[in-house]
Design a protein that fits this description.
Largest sheet of chain A: none
CATH architecture of the largest domain in chain A: Orthogonal Bundle
Oligomer: heterodimer
Shape of chain A: flat
Strand order of the largest sheet of chain B: 6-7-8-3-9-10-13-12
CATH topology of the largest domain in chain A: MetI-like fold
Number of helices of chain A: 15
Distance between the termini of chain B: 42 Å
Order of helices and strands of chain B: EEEHEEHEHHHHHEHEHEEHHEEEHHE
Structural class of chain A: mainly alpha
CATH class of the largest domain in chain B: Alpha Beta
Strand content of chain A: under 5%
Helix content of chain A: over 70%
CATH superfamily of the largest domain in chain A: MetI-like
Number of domains of chain A: 2
Structural class of chain B: alpha/beta
CATH superfamily of the largest domain in chain B: P-loop containing nucleotide triphosphate hydrolases
Number of domains of chain B: 2
Chain lengths: 318, 367
Amino acid sequence: MGIYIIRRLLYMVVVLLFVIALTFLIFYVLPSADPAALRAGRSPTPETLAAIREQLNLDKPLYEQFWLYITNLVLHFDLGNSFVNNEDVRSLVLDRLPNTLFLIAGAALLWFVSGVLIGTISAIKRGTMLDRAAMGVALLAISAPVYWLGLVALYMFASDIGRFPLVPGAGAYQNAEGFFAKIPTLILPWIVLAAAFSAIYARLTRSNLLEVMSEDYVRTARAKGLKERRVVVRHGLRAAITPVVTVLGLDIGILVGGAILTESVFGIPGIGRLAFDAIERGDLATIQGTTLFLALAVVTMNLVVDILYAFLDPRVRY
Amino acid sequence: MAAILEVKDLRVHFDTEDGLVQALDGISYTVGSGQVLGIVGESGSGKSVSSLTVMGLTRSRNARISGEVLFGGTNLLAASEDEMRRLRGNDIAMIFQDPLSSLHPFYKIGDQLVEAVRAHRDVSKAQARDRAIEMLGLVGIPEPRRRVDAYPHEFSGGMRQRVMIAMALINDPKLLIADEPTTALDVTVQAQILELIERLRRELDTAIVMITHDLGVVAEVTDDIAVMYAGRIVEYADKETIFASPEHPYTWGLLKSIPRLDLPRDEPLVPIPGRPPSLILKPPGCSFHPRCPYVREAHKRIDPKLAPASDAAVRHRVACLLPPQTRRALWTELVNGATPDDAKQRVTVPEEAVDPEVAAVDTEPAR
C-alpha cells in the first residue's frame, strides 16, 4: 500500500512538471503578443518595456527564465503578479478558492446523491415507465448547456427578476455576509451546476449496476438468501459505485480549477470567474496562474482517487 | 428414504424478444435424503434452469413457470418471495460453476460467510465467525483462522470452490445443488473437490443435485442419473444402469464421446453430430431426431414420453420411440466397438415401429 502511494506521488510530480513546462512554453515562448507589451498597457515608452522585460526576466536566456520560473513556483508557490492591477496572483487565487469550493461542495453532494439514487432506482426498475422517464429527463439535463439552464433558472425563480421569486438571484452571493447567509444564495447555482452531472451520474450508475447485477457474485448473494435490498446495496451498488467515485474525483478536480460558466452566470467570485475576467483583459499572468492551479487540482484529485480506489477495491492494493 | 425434493412436470418458459424460449418442458425427478442425483446434458439442455428454478432464482416478469417443486412437502412454486428467501442458503444451498466470479471481490471471505450465517440465524458476529472458521476447516482450507480474513483473489481456484462449498453448507442445508462445481477447475483439483463433496455428503447426510455436462463427474459421486436434452429428461436410471445398459441414443452418444482408460487406445471417440436444438424452435416429434443416427420417419412426428424401459426395470425410464429390443441390440453392437453406422447395418430398425406405450402425442407435423 505504501509503495503504491509513493509510486502515485512520483507520478503526480512528473505530470505536474510536465504541465509547468507546457504552460511556460505557451505563455512565455509562444504568446500571441509580446508579454511585456501586454503588461505595459497603452502606448508604453521603450524604457518602460525594457524595465518590464527585466522585471519579468524576459531579457535573460530561455533556460534561465525557465529555471527562475520553476524555482519561484515550486519554492514560493509564486504565480507572478497580475498584469492588470499588479496584485499577487497567488493571493488572487487563494482569495477566490473558498467561494469555488463552497459552490462545488454543495453541487457535488447534490449530484452524487441524486445521481446514484436515480441511477439505482432506474436499474432496479429497468424497462418500466419510471426508468424511461428518469432516463429521458437525464438526457434533457445532459443536453442543456449550463449558461442556458442558469439563465432560465434565474428567469423563473430568482427573487429579483423571476416569475416565481423563490430564491436569491445572480449577484446575491457576493452581497451576502457570512457562511449561513450565503447558503440560500447558492441554491440555484448548486442545482444548475449539479443538473448535468446528476444526469451523467444517474446514467453511469444505472449501466454499471445493471452490469454488476448480472454478475455471478450477485447470484451468490441471492442464493445465500439475503434480502433483495441488501443484495442490491451491499453486493450490487458497492461494486457498481467504484467507477462512479473515480469520475467524481476527476470532475471535482476540474471544477476546483473553475466552474467558469456557473460562476459567471450567478456572479460568484470564484476561480472560474477569475480566469474568465483574466482572459477578457488579456491578463497573461493570471490566466497562467489559474491554468496551473487547475492542473494542480486535477492532478491532486487524481491522486486522491487512486488512493481511494485502493480502499474501495481490495484487488488494487497488491 | 424420504424424498427431500420432488419435482413434478416442471415447465419454465421465457418470453424473449426472439420468441418463447422453452427452457424446461415438463421434467420430473425425486431426490431422497443423503442421495445424489446427477443431471447430465449439454449446454442449453435446461439443466441449470431447472436448479435455479428450484432456488426460486428464475422468477421474473418474462418467466412462465408451471408444475410443482415439492420441498419437504411444500410447493416452492407457490411460495412467496420472502418464504423462498428464507429457504435459500438455509435449507437449500447452491454452488456454482465459476468460483472465481461467484465470490464478491470486495469482501473478505470471512465476512461473506458470516453474512450467510446471519441472514438466517440470530447469532452474534463473533459466533458466526467461529462457525465460518469451523466450516473453512471442514472443507480443507489450511489455517482457517488466518485465511478467514483473506480476500477471494488471494485464493486459488480450487480453494475458492472450497470456500463456496463452506458457504453453501454453513447453515446445514437439507439439499445442495451443485451446478458444474468442477468445470472451471484443473483436473487434479476437480478430483479433490468431488472427493470433498462425497465426504461431506456422508458426514452431513445432505441430499445433492449434481449438474454437469461431464459423465466422468457423475460416475464418481452420483446414485441416480437424469440425462437431459432440449429441456427434457430423456433417460433416467441409477448410475450402474446408465453406464452398463443405457437405452437412449443420446446417452449412447455421450458415453461414446468420453475417453476411457479401460478401452483400447485405438478405439475412436464418436462425437454426437450436429448441435443441440434451439429452445425457441424445437424440432417436432422427438427433439433428438435431427441428430439421431437411428431416426425413422415416424419419429419426426411423434413426441416420445419418458416411460419405463421394460416391465422388469421400472426405475429405468427412457424417452425413445425405438422398440426396446432394437435399442438393446444396438447398444450391444456399440459396446462391441461398432460405429453407429455399422450398428444400423447389423440391426434392423423397423420402419414405423413405434412402441404404443411410449408414443405420447402425435404432434403437429410442423410448428
